[in-house]
Amino acid sequence: MVVDLEDAVPADRKADAREAVDDVAAAGAAADGPQVWVRVNDPDGPWGAADLDAVTGSGIAGIRLPRSADPDTVRRVAEHTGLPLQLVIETAAGLTRAVELAAAHPLVAGIGLGEADLSADLRLVSDAGLDWARGWVVVAARAAGLPSPVQSVWTDVADLDGLRASCERGLATGFVGRSVVHPRQLPVVHDVYTPTPAQVRHATAVVRTADEAMARGEVAVLDEDGRFVDPAVVERARVVLELAVPTGGDR
């Protein structure tokens, strides 16, 4: 769960929102609930320093850092707070430095896009204009050894068909999940991003075949269905198994 101190909070309520962070973090921990992250304001803006002071030592799991564009700022925030950072790229300047940002500090836990702001900065007139940026942030994350990124939020809450189509494009291009802004979006995101039972069975068979081959001193074999299995195929199968959760039956 991400508590937002940035765009969702009017300027005259920033202090009120900031003061609630400790209570939200404590409530989440007491109820054995989800991890609580906080999206702070721009560290170099008028509210950033106070936000960082408020979250340091608060017990939250980490920080979502908006408008990430400068590796030095990332390092400063990491050293100041000691908290894991999810970097959000929202400008052309940040996009050009995505690889540097992803590797800026050991506390960087992930990197992704803030697509609404990025679209505005790039002056895009179509969602398709973001396709290359999405591919680039996937590359930056993996090059730095970070988890594959999650997609930015889908802001048209009523358009679940559009959300599904967008998630399917994201899955095909290397994303592993999605941030949401409303509970009604969760079933669609889960349905697209959770491997199906058939995919899990196939991945399990691939890993089993690879393990049996390794025991024989082999690294590349044909499985029982005649499909080629090598280390790259096995790695992809292991990713599927990592993402899998019980589904209660075939889909």
Question: What is the gist of this entry?
Answer:
By secondary structure, the chain is α/β, with parallel strands linked by helices. It contains twelve helices and seven strands. The protein has two domains: 192 residues, Phosphoenolpyruvate-binding domains (TIM Barrel, Alpha-Beta Barrel); 47 residues, no CATH class.
Characterise the protein shown here:
This protein has helices at 14-19, 21-30, 48-55, 71-81, 92-96, 98-102, 115-122, 131-143, 160-172, 186-193, 197-215, 231-243, and strands spanning 2-4, 37-39, 62-65, 85-89, 108-113, 221-222, 228-229. By secondary structure, it is α/β, with parallel strands linked by helices. The protein has 2 domains: 2-193, Phosphoenolpyruvate-binding domains (TIM Barrel, Alpha-Beta Barrel), CATH 3.20.20.60; 197-243, no CATH class. The strands form 2 sheets. The chain has a 5-stranded parallel beta sheet with strand order 1-2-3-4-5. A two-stranded antiparallel ribbon has the order 6-7. β6 (221-222) and β7 (228-229) form a beta hairpin. α9 packs parallel to α10 (186-193). The chain is globular, with a radius of gyration of 20 Å. Residues 247-251 have low confidence and may be disordered.
